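Could you help me review a protein record that somebody else here produced? This is what I was given.
***
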Amino acid sequence: MKPVIALVGRPNVGKSTLFNQLTRSRDALVADLPGLTRDRQYGTGRVGGYGYMVVDTGGLSGESDTLDTLMAQQTRQAIREADLVMFLVDGRAGLCGADEMIAQELRGFNKPIVLVVNKTDGVDPQAVTAEFHRLGLGEPRTIAAAHGRGIQGLMASVRPLLPETVDEEEEGERWPGIRIAFVGRPNAGKSTLINRILGEERMVATDIPGTTRDSVFVPFERDGQVYTLIDTAGVRRRSRVKETVEKFSVVKTIQAIDAAHVVIFLLDAREGIAEQDAHLLGMVMDAGRALVVAINKWDGLTPDQRDRVKTDLLLKLPFLDFAERRFISALHGTGVGDLFGAVQRAHESAFRDMGTSVLTRLLESAVVAHQPPLVRGRRIKLRYAHQGGRNPPVIVIHGNQTDALPGAYKRYLTNHFREHLQLVGTPIRLEFKSGENPYEGKRNTLTPRQIHKRKRMMKHIKKKGR
């Protein structure tokens, strides 16, 4: 499991800016307006060379109105879930009473705390950090999140404070076989489906949304194949979440997705496809996990209702064309046995070894069938391909000017590889690398004969110009 880092501080100190820098995304809204972030925002850290999760929070303002109170509750929940807290302060504004109040509250959570002084570009770091030593939280780290300065050093310094990430071998020893995570909105039937597969009431399953509160790992064997089934908490829309009755942990669900080999995503056929379904599927896609889509509660629907669900799948989830879809009833067992064939095909595709010669021949056939476009009058050249990883399959393509390759052509290559390699149920990631020009920046040294011919040519041009 990846460790979790929570970004905490008063409003407008740069938490969302740092979140975007650490995740290399623009998922968090950023503006010069205090209190813009209100909910917890989760992302995967991509700076520092190791795995972790980042949680952006709305901050602690100390105000007593309803909105600020709810924001503070969201922030405290993020602190409880975190393995480490980054306490951000504003280096230009200096130490204030709100910072001292937050520092005092953070001590009560008994979590490792790193004091980060933001907005220190163009000023003396020692002068800026001097007054923050009064907080008694150790040596302050200085960064400029807006410009990305000091962030690599910050992440290197906090690495020893984080728990060790469990690698694939240790995870395999603890939870053997193919790990399957069951993900979906509350009351989609995840626990009921696991009970149906196991043939016993292993999970508490009710009609009350949010019955499951944590991720539960259950070993299971079927037809000689070992599996580990992971039941996850349903993730509701944030507008429906009240901290006092919160029934799920987003962190646990994300960690379960990360630990799984294959995700079975459950959709409620009677409720239809909601925006939250697309959001959760986006989390699965970001993790690169193999995927099987199970449309539950299929029994009892009229032909018109079934046609409507199938149309919605095509219109609302077009990016899932690679995933197998199974129409099931977890309560009655209809179609449940077909899920394991789809899981095994997705797992085999996600972990397949692909030879360099095979991938290069496929790349050549794709280029012959449809040439890459011209860039500044020069054709983009794609030379060879090799495998760069598994789960998901990563194909590394080498060539020239690959940075200018348009998205439409990348999708064409993805579909070409998927079709010819017969990969089912797993996303494919393409990485492009451009070779360096050995003559870039170098001038050709002329021989004496070439210099003489050049002078004669220049004389001839001058005479002609007269």
